What we know:
By secondary structure, the chain is mostly beta strands. The protein has strands at 6-11, 29-32, 45-47, 68-69, 117-124, 128-130, 132-133, 139-146, 153-158, 163-170, 175-181, 187-192, 197-205, 210-218, 225-232.
Amino acid sequence: MLTERFMLATLMVLAVACDSSDPKPDEDLSIGDLDDGTSGGSDGTGGSGDGDGGTDGDGGTDGDGGSDEGSDGDADAPIGDTDGDGDGDGGGGSGSGEPAAPAFEPDQSVACTDDLVFGIQMLDSVVGSCTSCTSGADHWVGATIYNPCDVDFEVSLYDGYLVGGMELVNHSTGEGMGMGSGSTGRVVSETVGPGEWLSEGVYLGRLSDGEYSLSIAFFDTESHSAALDFTVE
């Protein structure tokens, strides 16, 4: 089940357990750093903090790390903690009965090039981050915007989301699909401090076996993108 802000553009019988008729609420989006601990859930806008027991803007509590602020609904899109691995509620689906994604984080070995690093990875419910993913498991794509430098950077996101669209192709069968997200045109600017990152997970369901390519269009105003190849077996 994909989030309601994603609209299926092309679909050719791909065995993905997603149901656009049963939309879910806003994707979780979070911000993390290199400190220890696991990330907290994200339901508000902005947010920083260390330690356990993150709280979200609507008065609820999520996860065990960091705090957010803001409100749900039509307010700024969710942003999460600054402690732990920065994936919010596991970085994955919430609502509509979707399973929460495994924890994930960016590649923190990348060197500073005076800019943010936009990256994606595949996740499954058995091993977490994967390039050879488990057949029959639940699958997600995890997107991150990471700051490997020692100065702050700002990123502007449409509606506060990281992922704006994606294309997924199973080269073993020739089947594929494309998804795009609508936008209100509202731009949310976020500051990413040194060693911190934003993250968002999108639930894909259970992918059939095969060799895949995946490309993501980030929802930032500079239209960054990222791509990867992976297998399900």
